[in-house]
Automatic annotation (TrEMBL):
Protein name as catalogued: L-threonylcarbamoyladenylate synthase
SUPFAM superfamilies: YrdC/RibB
Gene3D superfamilies: DHBP synthase
Domain of life: Bacteria
EC number of the protein: 2.7.7.87
GO terms for MF: L-threonylcarbamoyladenylate synthase
Every YrdC-like domain range: 14-200
Pfam families assigned: Sua5_yciO_yrdC
Enzyme's top EC category: transferase
PANTHER family noted in UniProt: DHBP SYNTHASE RIBB-LIKE ALPHA/BETA DOMAIN-CONTAINING PROTEIN, THREONYLCARBAMOYL-AMP SYNTHASE
Keyword annotations of the record: Nucleotidyltransferase, Transferase
């Protein structure tokens, strides 16, 4: 059964976050809130966790996972960002955007797009997510919590616990999340290409 952590949306309890981070470090899989929707997440090195996400969402091996980062310093360890792209991303982060960029050698090959050698990254504007990332000290490998049998992402923590009680190790809840996933912008060619319209305003990239 999944452990359920109900935390304050503006002052998340450190003890609860520490317990969730312990589960992540023990190669657990969690459901957690972001500034767009709930997400499924595990540590970058947790290959079994990645496969569990694929199984829950019924994803194939072409799916682009996202590295959810605390800040630009962390993001810069995992993707290659030139000055022009940096300025474009800086103007919209933190926020509900995912950026596809060339991966550095820090990224395991299994997380990259097979041909392009790219990976998705984002910096969320969410107090609880930021506190969780600060406690963990590394990005969380993530995917939107959109279940194949539902038209929209689940927005209630208790509902997620009911649905995924035996498939995840913890549900971190701080209140409702939205149902719109992030806006995805692909910079792998050097030019911005909006590949998914979502919660973030895409007009500046079009």
């Amino acid at each position: 059964m999944a452990r359920y952590f109900d935390v304050h949306p503006e002052n998340p309890q450190r003890r609860s976050l520490s317990q969730v981070v312990d589960l992540l470090r023990e190669d657990g899989l969690i459901a957690y809130p972001t500034d767009s929707c709930f997400a499924l997440g595990c540590r970058i090195g947790n290959q079994e966790g990645m496969e569990r996400i694929r199984a829950i969402r019924k994803l194939d091996h072409r799916h682009h996972f996202t590295l959810v980062c605390q800040d630009f310093a962390q993001l810069g360890q995992f993707v290659i960002v030139d000055n022009t792209v940096f300025r474009a991303i800086k103007a919209t982060t933190p926020g509900p955007y995912t950026f596809i960029l060339p991966a550095t050698k820090e990224v395991p090959r299994r997380l990259m797009h097979a041909k392009k050698k790219t990976v998705g990254v984002r910096i969320p504007d969410h107090v609880v997510t930021q506190a969780l990332l600060a406690e963990l000290g590394e990005p969380i490998l993530s995917s939107t919590l959109l279940l194949p049998e539902f038209a929209e992402p689940l927005t209630q923590g208790w509902e997620i616990k009911e649905e995924l009680d035996h498939q995840v190790d913890a549900v971190l809840d701080s209140g409702d999340c939205g149902v719109e996933p992030t806006t995805v912008v692909d910079f792998s060619s050097g030019e911005a290409e909006v590949v998914r319209h979502g919660a973030g305003d895409a007009t500046r990239f079009e």
